[in-house]
Amino acid sequence: MERKPHFVRREFLPREVSSISLTLLLVAVLLFNALLYLYLNKFYSSSGRGETDPSLCPFGYFKLGTVKNCSPWLSCEAINREVRKLKRVGEGAVKKVFLSEWKENKVVLSQLTNPELKEDFLHGLKMLKALQSKHVVRLLGYCEQQFTILTEYHPLGSLRGLNETLHIPRYKGMNTWHRRLMLAIDYVSIIRYLHSSPLGTLVMCDSNDLDKVLSQYLLTSDFHVLVNDLDALPLVNRSAGRLVKCGHRELRGDFVAPEQHWPYGEEVPFEDDLMPPYDEKTDIWKIPDVSNFFLGHVEGSDIVRLHLFDIHAACKKKNPAERPSAQEVLDTYRKVLTLLIRETAMPGIREML
């Protein structure tokens, strides 16, 4: 009689354990999906998935650092009086750039280099003012009379130094397929924003090679991407029959889109007036090459490339009309990120049980 309860307990124990395991598995899966939803929702909202940012100030104002109140863009007088140059950190065809200081904050002061390019400089300022958003470096002030622009400082610099930054011990934990794909998503988000901007469809013309593209973007301290250089953003207006041309010289190489090449062969000398214009699909052609840089050669990056193969093949269609929109590319990137995070996490949940 005393052995019988012991015998019954041994008979039903495996079934009870199986039931508990199944319940735990279901709870773990539901919890994982909830956390994944919250994480991706936070990522999309914090990384510029929307065009507005509650932390941004009204037009003509800015916030810097931990300051809660918005300040008006600095005027010529304020820049001359309150901003102190520290050192020159860069120079391009249009402007030279100085690391500077304003009220104990590091800032960036840009000044016109070549008076012949003042129209490009002023166009960049116009774009910077009009496109202030999560995607664009923060404008702090400007002086048109002195051809001066003041913007927020980002110590990690341009995307040219991404790989070097990721090899610094402090940032090695960021050197993963997951973080690199998120940077690529930031980049495509910016292209999508420019193609559907408040001003209309804008083409990123300063992009004739990979190095030039990378120089146009900044890496923030929390590992997001901002567009920094807006000097060459012509407008496509199909209803008015207006297309664009990126510069007045012949473009060569595989990085630029086929329609950006001189179409009449080597036997006909290049003439800008005869060069056919094109649209924003030139930006789409370049996305796979830029994303390939972002993904690098870390563990898992080849798996990401495999999942992106079809959309990247579509981006490389010779006919621009057959290429996807930036929104379609962005949607695919997001789906791949969600899928791979789920596939990566599920084996770990099973092992826990």
TrEMBL record:
Gene Ontology BP term (one): protein O-linked glycosylation
GO cellular component, one term: endoplasmic reticulum membrane
Principal subcellular localization: endoplasmic reticulum
Start and end residues of each Protein kinase domain: 83-353
Lineage: superkingdom: Eukaryota
Catalytic activity: 3-O-[beta-D-GalNAc-(1->3)-beta-D-GlcNAc-(1->4)-alpha-D-Man]-L-Thr-[protein] + ATP = 3-O-[beta-D-GalNAc-(1->3)-beta-D-GlcNAc-(1->4)-(O-6-P-alpha-D-Man)]-Thr-[protein] + ADP + H(+)
PROSITE patterns found in the cross-reference section: PROTEIN_KINASE_DOM
Protein name: Protein O-mannose kinase
